[in-house]
Design a protein that fits this description.
The complex is a heterodimer of chains A (145) and B (446).
Chain A: E1 3-11, H1 18-26, E2 31-38, E3 42-49, H2 52-61, E4 66-77, H3 82-92, E5 97-107, E6 110-117, H4 120-129, E7 134-135, H5 137-144
Antiparallel strand pairs in A: 1-3, 1-4, 2-3, 4-6, 4-7, 5-6
Chain B: H1 18-21, H2 25-43, H3 47-56, H4 77-82, E1 96-102, E2 110-115, H5 116-132, E3 140-143, H6 151-163, E4 166-168, H7 175-185, E5 189-192, H8 194-206, E6 218-221, H9 228-238, E7 241-248, E8 253-259, E9 266-268, E10 273-278, E11 292-298, E12 309-315, E13 317-318, E14 330-331, E15 336-337, E16 342-344, E17 347-349, H10 351-359, E18 368-373, E19 380-386, H11 396-414, E20 419-423, E21 438-440
Parallel strand pairs in B: 3-4, 3-5, 5-6, 6-7, 18-21, 19-20
Antiparallel strand pairs in B: 1-2, 7-8, 8-9, 9-14, 10-11, 11-12, 12-15, 13-14, 16-17, 18-19
Helix pairs in contact in B: 5-6, 7-8, 8-9, 10-11
The chains are: A alpha+beta (145), B alpha/beta (446).
Chain lengths: 145, 446
């Protein structure tokens, strides 16, 4: 149910974002979604790709420091209050969100959000118990193709 | 004092202690010899010196001429560390009047102790170079040096008092307040590091105040290396006369030497210090006027005398007479170090301290680079640390707290605030053999 997210360290200067993306593009690996957190000095690029193991191998061969983290993709209703309802569930269960970002595609009346939890396993359990749809890797990939 | 009745610059050089400062050479050298012999006697009971002397079969009888100083063994910073904190004391602890300290390479300061007589001599020595540089009893001087373990603040403070001038112990930092104090109290003199003098000028401009309109006319600067270019800049910016002085805490603090109005080298207070200039490799004297490592013996210090202390500072010595009438030998600016010590905003820092700080944070070594620059008037240190799987996290808060932790460790160990720049893997140049850890972009050579 969980997804493998790749994180890369980038210096915050022109052209740094392009290099790792070009490296995986050259191997025909499709990026499903990405997010970038940055300070004036450096950034952390987070990627969800089709074949994360291959992407990781390619990036590491190119000298990047790559970190693999488990994240959780959750369907929420794409209407006012949709996200708030999901967050309420997490809050009630005392689940700490490290960060989150939106998946770039929506499906029907649903939007997908990617959550980084401190405890992803418990988060998945709570979300399922509460009837939310947790989107697995296979499903995410098939929904984009 | 208003602008209208301000004294002209560079008043004629007066001599604080004519007996000592213009003593005929033969007399001065006889005094040095007498003091050197008495020094050897005074330290003979200190275990460090006793063992050293025994090993080299030395006693007072070994010193028949000043040249015999070369029979005495050297003292190094390492010796001070090995006898931390007060193992080199030559007087009973109860006789101490003050203890100062200097930054050490291992994070803990090395301590230097003074008897009341040491403090009195120290004030006298500071008075000499202050007066040589134009200080008069009717002046007021703002001291913007740190007051604390650092010898700069207290040393100059009591020297100014000795001259009979008034002191404003403003202490280091808070530049706006320094300017307010200056404008309120009209001090003629300023004591600080040369780079801080430029910071004051910049800050004044930021406040819409013409730095040249500040009351200061005279500056005695030290605590860090500076150049003639920097002197011209300071004098131009603040419309003052700027004087250089030299000293180090291990010997006494400021007061070892200082410039006179000729500003052609710093007069060494030879009645209190015997200064040699040696080739740091062969430890033989360099030809007169050539650069070499200064090795200093403190002839009159009571509490913690130093015998042939290796300063690691590179300078040149001049013996030809000076136009000011002083007979003492002069030294050039310090133009370098024989070790890798850096002076950052007046704080002595060794690259090994930065390394030690990094070692306390797992995964941050072995690839780092210390970059020192002076973008404006003040030194800045950037420590570049290569990112490594062990320290990389996808969480921004973790990465930021990593930077803060490294910065905190550097501050604890080395006493300086450094910017920590995390950089991409393999972005720091690799060296075969000894790695180059320091990139000093400041230009402080003359």
């Amino acid at each position: 149910m969980k997804l493998q997210q790749l994180s890369l360290f980038l210096e915050n200067r022109p052209g740094r974002l392009e290099a790792p993306l070009a490296a995986i593009a050259a191997e025909d690996i499709n990026i499903l979604t990405l997010s970038l957190a940055d300070t004036a000095q450096f950034g952390i690029l987070r990627l969800i790709v089709r074949d994360w193991e291959k992407a990781k191998r390619i990036l590491e061969q190119d000298g990047w420091v790559v970190n693999v983290t488990e994240v959780v993709a959750v369907d929420v209703l794409d209407r006012p209050g949709g996200l708030a309802a999901a967050l309420k569930i997490l809050e009630d269960a005392d689940l700490n969100i490290e960060y989150m970002y939106a998946y770039s595609l929506r499906r029907g009346d649903k939007a997908i959000l990617i959550f980084r939890f401190e405890d992803p396993d418990r988060a998945v359990q709570v979300l399922l118990d509460k009837g939310l749809h947790v989107v697995g890797g296979e499903e995410l990939i098939s929904s984009t193709s | 004092m208003s602008l209208a009745d301000r004294q002209p610059h560079s008043p004629a050089d007066s001599i604080w202690n004519p007996t000592a400062e213009t003593m005929p050479r033969a007399e001065l050298e006889a005094l040095q010899l007498e003091r050197l012999r008495s020094l050897v006697e005074r330290v003979a009971h200190v275990p460090f010196h006793r063992d050293h002397f025994a090993h080299h079969e030395i006693g007072t009888h070994s010193i028949r001429s000043l040249a015999d100083i070369r029979r005495l063994p050297f003292t190094t910073k390492n010796d001070m560390r090995r006898h931390h904190p007060l193992g080199l004391l030559a007087v009973p602890r109860k006789d101490l009047a003050r203890i100062h300290g200097s930054s050490g390479t291992t994070g803990k300061p090395t301590f230097v102790a003074y008897t009341a007589r040491d403090l009195d001599i120290w004030s006298e020595l500071c008075a000499r170079f202050l007066v040589a540089g134009g200080l008069k009893p009717e002046h007021t001087v703002q001291v913007a040096f740190g007051y604390g373990l650092f010898t700069g603040g207290f040393g100059l403070h009591y020297g100014i008092e000795k001259v009979g001038a008034a002191v404003i112990p403003a202490a280091a930092g808070n530049t706006r307040r320094q300017i307010e104090i200056m404008r309120a109290l009209d001090p003629e003199g300023l004591i600080c590091t040369p780079s801080y003098a430029l910071t004051i000028a910049d800050a004044a401009r930021d406040l819409g105040i013409d730095p040249r309109s500040l009351p200061i006319r005279l500056g005695h600067f030290g605590g860090e290396p500076w150049s003639e270019d920097m002197r011209r800049e300071i004098e131009e910016e603040l419309d003052i006369s700027a004087f250089n002085n030299y000293g180090l805490s291990e010997i006494i603090g400021p007061g070892v030497s200082g410039e006179c109005s000729a500003r052609d080298g710093m007069h060494i207070q030879e009645d209190h210090f015997l200064v040699e200039c040696l080739d740091p490799e062969t430890l033989e004297p360099v030809p007169e006027g050539e650069p070499g490592e200064l090795v200093i013996t403190s002839l009159t210090r009571e509490a913690m005398p130093m015998i042939r202390y290796r300063t690691r500072d590179i300078a040149r010595l001049y013996r030809e007479p000076c136009s000011c009438g002083r007979t003492t030998m002069r030294m050039s600016r310090v133009t370098g170090r024989t070790d890798d010590m850096l002076i950052i905003r007046g704080v002595n820092v060794f690259p090994s301290q930065i390394e030690e700080a990094l070692l306390r944070v797992e995964g941050t070594t072995p690839h780092y680079l210390i970059e020192v620059s002076r973008p404006g008037t003040l030194d800045e240190v950037h420590v570049k640390v290569e990112i490594h799987p062990e320290i990389f996290s996808d969480r921004m808060d973790r990465m930021q707290s990593l930077c803060e932790r490294i910065s905190r460790e550097i501050h604890t160990v080395a006493g300086i605030r450094a910017h920590v720049d995390l950089v991409e893997p393999r972005s720091i140049e690799r060296f075969v053999g000894k790695a180059k850890r320091v990139l000093d972009k400041r230009n402080i050579q003359n």
